[in-house]
Sequence to fold (670 residues):
Amino acid sequence: MSDTTVIAGSAPRSFRRFIERFPFLPALVILVVLLALNGLFEPNSLSYRAIRGLISTYLALILLSVAQTYVIYAADLDLSVGAILSLVNVGIIMLMQHLGGSPGGVLLACGAGILIGLACGIVNGIVVAVLRLQAIVATFATSILFTGLALYVLPVAGTPAPTVYWRTYGGTFFGFPFVFYVAVAIAIVLFLIARTRLITQLLSVGDDQQAAYQTGLPVTLIRLKGYALCGVFAALAALCVTGDTASGDPLVGGEMTLNSVAAVVLGGTALSGGVGSVTGSVFGALIIGLISSLVFFVGTPSEWQNLVQGLAILLALMVGVLVGRRAKS
Amino acid sequence: MTRISRLATITVSALAVTVFAAQAEDFTIGLSNGWVGSEWRTQMIDEAEEAAAAWKDQGVDVKVVVQSANVDVPGQIAHVRNFINQGVDAIIINPNSPTAFDPVFAQAKEAGILVISTDAEVSSPDAMYVGIDQKGWAEESAKWLAETLEGKGKVVAINGVAGHPANQMRVAGYTEVFDGYPDIEVVNEVNANWDQAQGQQAMQNLLATYPDIDGVWVQDGMAAGAWKSIMDAGKTGDIAATGEIRKDFIDLWVENDLTSGASVNPPGVMASALNVAVLLLQGNELKEPATAGQYGNAMYLPIPFIDGSNVKEAATELDGKPGYYSYTDALSIDDAKALFK
Fold:
């Protein structure tokens, strides 16, 4: 930050400002290109039904990436988001089973699920911010703890969700799919959260923790709040996964953790903290989803699909990093 | 040969193909596999692709599109949604979860797509299962073991992943069979996560703890590991243990004249499911509707069995194949036709 006055002449000043103001722009461009390519190779992939399917499948990853963004703002990391998702998933499934499938019982279970997520987030906040363990190792350890709890709650994948729950998630109300309302609601909530003081505080802690401390910010409390917010959003992601899968699975989120980190980085948020946007993470999550669809739609032979998918994500990352670097130079 | 005559030949054959294709039935079938960790899965997809090609002789053009990658459950749901967008006629899936696909299968059915799961049963009423009965698979080898031991002796079991649905069904299968033989005593049951090395380790521990066991019931690739420990301990002649179906093990079995028996879960199940799918797409009706299994939507395939009486034939059949190749079996088109009215 100290060298902002030394501006090299290579990049136009306006372009640099633009990227700084909207760090998610490269991700947006990649996203539009991917949508176009998907549409080119499979015109149906841009149909109304397909877009609806895309949103209901990836809403969970979007929310998980948003969760991850809040801790990365403060230069922290949460490797337990997937495990929190699994724990909340099996937690609400078991609660719904005990409370019966009535709408009241379902809502109660959802509320309890969010509290479970919050509790997990606070546990992470305590081990990382209060006890000062390294975030990457400490949250890896808590992820094992949360997975263990999930396996204790529901040892075998199964146990259906009440019909009212997944019929609502996959249903249509007043002419629009339920997931569209969810997406709009999330957009509003994200917009409101982005204007709170907590976000500014998280970013300043991530930018320079020492400076933030010296200016009198309660750094420990801010980081703890970041983890708590992360836990709540991981729980919201679990509500979406449960809506789309209609069942409990104690291992459902495990593989989503690193995808959430990748989505955040794809979205232009720096892992070193201090710079970023949740908008970018939303785009990043969609990019990951669209890449795996595209790999299939272009007709990649089955034995190459994993490899091509990895290369495509790497390419998307490189484009984002190069544009960002050009803007900084 | 002049260029013109060659061109004419190409044109004529192209025309012939077009005319043929216009008359022929044309189906697109999506294959989804959510785990690529074993050769068995690769062989499963290869055999299904071969089965699709075989329909050409019947005048049916079956095009397969494959999605095979390590994915989580939401990732495999995305597989299904991609197939729906592509407008396939049928989806055949080796599912990562028994229950998680209920909503998306309902959407596929709404779009007029036939959904068949194979290798693992699914709870969705909008899908059917074509594959072996995992419980029956365990019962067959448990019966072989009990009868080989003449109904009495000490037995240990080495199982797969605790909590995995297929593992639970298999455990239920052998438990039921051994309960029917009052003199068979199951002295210990351990989990070795379907891993050959862990199977070998588990067997070593079991041999150290119970030197006087007579029989071992062990699943899949772990059997090769368990037999390695049995042979290392010099107990090849004293112990009867279940086996597995890869060429490497079957060769070992023949060479050392092991007392073994193996239920076959053939990788050809997906090929069988594909043949059933094509016949259903043609509008044929099953003689007996698929109503078996815990979810009431299963059609069980016969389970081949290998023991001392036919292991040499199995070895001959696998001759020339790579060591990881599994003994296989699938419904041929004619076999499948026989199941329909």
Observations:
- Chain A has one domain: 2-328.
- Residues 1-9 of chain A have pLDDT under 50 and may be disordered.
